[in-house]
Amino acid sequence: MKREQLRLSEKLDMISRETDSLAGVLQLRDQVQREHQDEFKEIVEVSRSLQEWRSTITAVYSDAGHLFESEPIRELIDRFGPQQTYAAEPPGRSEGRMRPNQKRVRPRRQR
Fold this sequence. Notes:
mainly alpha
């Protein structure tokens, strides 16, 4: 009987320590959230803006992408533009796959 009481007491102590540990982790999480709340909001806003920008670029590509494929425009770009071409990627195409002579176009950072 005393052995069972000792085991039960040890288990209750372990449960108590684990509960205290969990409470400490939750307090730390809440503290981090409070301290970095502005950064989290900024990240969400930047992510939202990036999604809107990507949607806009995709819409422009769908409307005007064929213009860059036309022979007269290609000749103009080849004659006056740099040797590397700049290409917007169509929706669904991986950004990692590009032709050897293409260069990725990135938006300018606002200061």
